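Task: sequence design from structure.
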């Protein structure tokens, strides 16, 4: 994916997390500047305030490229 398309895809995930107020775990593949494809397992979790409004998103990504190559 191009950087533009990658950003659009991530924004769609973020909008869904905000809408649903639910955590999502997704796998993302991204082409790096050196043309290498990296694979990431990403966990997105909504950050809520005291009245259950989403005020942010916590995101943690783990590089699973080696694991994918071993499959």
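Answer:
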């Amino acid at each position: 994916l191009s950087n533009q398309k990658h950003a659009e895809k991530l924004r769609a995930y973020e909008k869904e997390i905000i809408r649903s107020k639910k955590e999502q775990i997704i796998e993302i593949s991204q082409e790096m500047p050196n043309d290498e494809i990296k694979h990431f397992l990403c966990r997105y979790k909504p950050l809520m305030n005291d009245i259950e409004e989403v005020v942010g998103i916590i995101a943690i990504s783990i590089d699973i490229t080696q694991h994918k190559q071993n499959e």
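The first strand starts at residue 24 and ends at 31.
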